[in-house]
Design a protein that fits this description.
By secondary structure, the chain is α/β, with parallel strands linked by helices. Helix content is 40%, strand content 21%. The chain folds into three domains: 77 residues, Orthogonal Bundle (Arc Repressor Mutant, subunit A), CATH 1.10.10.10; 76 residues, D-Maltodextrin-Binding Protein, domain 2 (3-Layer(aba) Sandwich), CATH 3.40.190.10; 100 residues, D-Maltodextrin-Binding Protein, domain 2, CATH 3.40.190.10. It starts with 7 loop residues before the first helix and ends with a helix.
């Protein structure tokens, strides 16, 4: 490696390039032009004596040597930040930074609006961006590890053990259907439930059982899914025009019964409520700004639960 001095900016470009494997995404994240990042990449290649990123099909991938540089670069950036910005306090009222939260769209109708309201009330000069978990490159775990996401909210039955976790609230499973459904109110038995055709939303792995199917199985229930949608917001409008059943959370179902001719029936035999969590990576565990964001989300969940 060249003995030429490498400054903190180049280290930041290096780390972002290697974790994103993309000049264009690096430019976007760092607020720079692609030509500027390309120049920095050429300089880094000269300094390290390695191509760092090479083409594989239609995308770029790090070389084996580049992979060994990711952790040292991250540690260097962390150390530099600790030296240059040693403050341990955070004032949301004066910050102008941008926070990113990963969340599935079943939280859009009741949880996300409440977070947005509380966020802008406490941090009027800041920005908040919600990212659908399906649209985070490398998945939400990579989003947290890379720093692209500050926080992730969801209701997994078994969240990843290597991430920090805080339970937020619980919500029960119910069955949503059109108000004039042939299944009369109070007549949704286990046999009727299992004979009916169901609608489901698949947001992650289309081959694996989702959280709801796992919970139904614990209660000895199964469902025949004949219609699958990519977004929860589409489901209520399909229900209005069909005889499909949709097993979902009460918060989501209650919201749409106030907007559309839909009704709620209990899941036969009952089911354990789902727990909503917020997840974060160790890299932001001690960050004052990230701690404020987590407290805000936890307070929003608590207030929603009380109402």
């Amino acid at each position: 490696m060249s003995k030429e001095i490498i400054d903190s900016h180049l280290i930041k470009v290096l780390h972002t390039l290697l974790t994103e494997s993309s000049v264009s995404r690096t430019a976007t994240l760092l607020g720079q032009s692609q030509p500027t990042v390309s120049v920095a990449l050429r300089k880094l290649r000269e300094m390290t004596g390695d191509p760092l990123l090479v083409r594989s099909g239609s995308r770029m991938v790090p070389t084996s040597h580049a992979l060994t540089l990711i952790d040292p670069a991250a540690q260097a950036l962390s150390s530099i930040a600790a030296i240059l910005h040693p403050t341990t306090t955070f004032d949301p009222a004066t910050t102008n930074r941008t926070f990113r939260i990963g969340s599935p769209d079943y939280l859009d109708v009741f949880f996300v609006p409440a977070i947005v309201d509380a966020f802008h009330s406490e941090a009027p000069g800041a920005k908040i961006e919600f990212k659908h978990l399906m649209m985070v490159d490398g998945g939400y775990e990579h989003g947290l590890e890379s720093g692209f996401l500050d926080l992730v909210i969801g209701n997994w039955r078994t969240p990843p053990e290597h991430l920090h976790l805080q339970p937020l609230c619980k919500d029960e499973l119910v069955c949503l259907m059109r108000a004039a459904h042939p299944i009369k109110p109070g007549r949704l038995t286990q046999a009727v439930y299992q004979e009916a055709e169901h609608l489901a939303v698949t947001t992650y792995n289309t081959t694996a059982w989702g959280t709801i199917d796992v919970e139904l199985a614990r209660n000895g229930l199964s469902r025949t899914v004949t219609t699958t949608l990519p977004y929860f917001g589409m489901a209520p409008y399909v229900l209005v025009r069909s005889n499909l059943l949709f097993t979902t959370t009460r918060a989501l179902a209650t919201h749409y019964t106030g907007l559309l001719p839909l009704r709620i029936e209990p899941v036969p035999g009952g089911a354990q409520p789902l727990t909503y969590y917020q997840l974060w990576h160790d890299r932001t565990h001690r960050s004052a700004a990230a701690m404020w964001l987590r407290r805000l989300v936890a307070n929003v969940a608590k207030n929603l639960l009380e109402t």
